[in-house]
Amino acid sequence: MHTPVWTEDFISRTTGKREITIHQQLSNSMNLANLCQVSLSSAP
Fold first, then answer.
1. Cα distance between residue 12 and residue 21, in whole Å
2. How far apart are CA 17 and CA 13, in angstroms?
3. How much is the pTM?
4. In which region does residue 37 sit, left (phi positive, over 0), alpha (psi from -120 to 50) or beta (all else)?
5. Is residue 6 very low, low, confident or very high in pLDDT (cuts 50, 70, 90)?
6. pLDDT at 15 over 80
7. Distance separating alpha carbons of residues 1 and 4, to the nearest angstrom
8. Is the Cβ–Cβ distance between 7 and 24 less than 8 Å?
9. Do residues 18 and 8 lie in contact, with contact meaning Cβ atoms separated by under 8 Å?
10. Superkingdom of the source (predicted)?
């Protein structure tokens, strides 16, 4: 999946890091969701 040009431009202007991709953002969101599920399931 290719990152939209405007997103790359926005990221490069704001952080200077073009390597930040939608894929990484999605995987980060998935990791957060997994952490929430684990903490909920382990709650008493």
1. 11
2. 8
3. 0.36
4. alpha
5. low
6. no
7. 9
8. no
9. yes
10. Eukaryota
